[in-house]
Amino acid sequence: MLPVVYHPIYSDFPIPDGHRYPLSKYRLLKEHLIDNNWPVVEHRPERLESAQLKAIHDPEYVDALLSGTIPLVKMRRIGFPWSDALLQRSLTSLGGTTLTVDLALAHGVAIHLTGGYHHSHYDFGGGFCLFNDLVLAAQHALAYPHIDKVLIVDCDVHHGDGTASLTAERDDIITLSVHCEKNFPSRKPDSTIDLPLPIGTDSESYLHAFLPCLKLALAQHQPDMVIYDAGVDIHIDDELGYLSVCHEGIAKRDAAVFDACADHQIPVAAVIGGGYRTDHAQLVPLHAELVRAAINTYYPTTWNETNE
Ligand SMILES: [Zn+2]
């Protein structure tokens, strides 16, 4: 059965009323999988330690966030008020992405039911991202003796600016960002490969642009592991995305990523990434496509008649 990583804290920390962050979607997604008897095994992460954070982030930035002494202006850029609960949630979800790497290396695939904090840079965060779980997880993967190169495939509608800047000088972490060219963040430092798409790009054009790019990245860089950010804010109805990809297009994208990695026998750790609707429940079927695609590729015989 497919390993999935989840902790109740993901949907349980205080944010102001009316905040954009889709707080309940993590719990709703997990309940959807369990209530409908999907063939998944739940794993619960531990918090990441500060020493691991300081391997990629500025130690002063890490200490300021851990102690709550971070300047207000920096928290405003992140988009949350500082609280110990927020910090614990963040550390737990970072541990979740590294656990997802461990599980993917053991089983070939694993999915984290949150994650994708790609706007976090060396010494500042942004766009709801405190620390960069994707780079932390890549760093974690590289500690395995047989992992020399990690490819981060970032399909969130927003550019992976923090991931790009944190890995700019490295050749052991390759970054591919597929994003809307006219969307947050305004400054987009170069990823290894950037695929900017115009506003309104539909499913057909999206897949036509992305799939050859993915195949080229796999062939050219021959990574030992893929970390996949499967943001669904590329959907036409997303409130923070300006692309026009439909539900079926998201399903095809996720299936294509797993199929390509399975073809090359490259383990994949996937995170659900962004997805923004006032009604969080509407995001669940979109994020569930990632889980469905992984089951279809890696555990096709585990579906049974009780699944929805
Ligand atoms: Zn996003």
Instruction: Output the CATH topology.
Output: Arginase, Chain A
Strand content: 5-15%
Number of E-state strands: 8
Provide the domain count.
1
CATH arch. level architecture: 3-Layer(aba) Sandwich
- CATH homolog superfamily: Histone deacetylase domain
Q: Spans with pLDDT under 50 lasting ≥5 residues?
A: none
Protein name: Histone deacetylase
Family: Belongs to the histone deacetylase family.
GO molecular function: histone deacetylase activity; hydrolase activity
Keywords: Hydrolase
Would you give an account of this structure?
It is a single chain. The chain has one domain (2-13, 23-301): 3-Layer(aba) Sandwich (Arginase, Chain A). The protein contains ten helices and eight strands. The chain is globular. Strands 2-1-3-8-7-4-5-6 form an eight-stranded parallel beta sheet, with helices on both faces. By secondary structure, the protein is an alpha/beta fold. Helix 9 (247-263) links the parallel strand 7 (225-229) and strand 8 (268-271). Bound molecules: zinc ion. InterPro entries: HDAC_classIV, HDACs, His_deacetylse_dom, His_deacetylse_dom_sf, Ureohydrolase_dom_sf. Belongs to the histone deacetylase family. It comes from Enterovibrio coralii. This is Histone deacetylase.
